[in-house]
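FAQ: What does the model actually see?

It sees only this:
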Amino acid sequence: MILKRFNSKIILNFAAVKLKQTIEMKKSGYLVILITLLFISCNGTSGSKDGINTGKTADLKTDGGSGNDKPAAGKPEHLTAQTFKLKVMDYEKNQQQWVFEGDKPAIVDFYADWCKPCRMISPILEELAAEYEGKINVYKVDTEAQREIAAIFGIQSLPTVLFIPMQGNPSAQKGALPKESYKKIIDEFLLKTPSTTTN
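And it is asked to produce this:
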C-alpha cells in the first residue's frame, strides 16, 4: 500500500539530521544523560509489558481526538487519524513531502498506555503545554488506537516525540528526556528566531 511506503524514511531522516544539527550538545554530562534515557524507551511492540495494563486514565481523554470537543487550555490534545490530518499533516494528500497543516509549532507524543517511559513524560508534556500555551501545540497519538499513523510514520520505539517547527522539517526524539531537554528543544528548534540562529 502506498501509504505504508510513505515515508517513515522521510520523517525519520528529517528527525535524525535536523535534531542533531539544531541542538548541539556541549556538555559531556548532558550526552551521558541523553544516552541513559534513550535506553529507557520502550520498543514499539503491541500489547502489555510485564502484564501491566493500566487502561486509559481520565487525564488522557481530554479530547479523545474527536475534533468535536475543545481540549482544556494548556493541556495536550489527543488526535485521531482524522484530526491528525487536519492539525498536523494530511499524509493521504501529501505522500511524498512534508506539509505541515498547523498554525503554530507543535509537539506530537506517540505513546501507549502500557509504556512506562511514556507515562513518565506525560506529566512533563502537560507542564510544557501549560507553560508554552499560545506558542506551541502539544498533541498526543495513542499508537494502539491509531495504528495507521504509527505505521505511516514508522514508530517502532515508544515514546517517540515529534518536534514540528512552522518552517522546515520535523525532528523526532526517541525515549524519555528530562523536562529541561524538552524545553531546550522547544526554545532552540521550535521557537528559534532568525537573530539567534548561528551557523
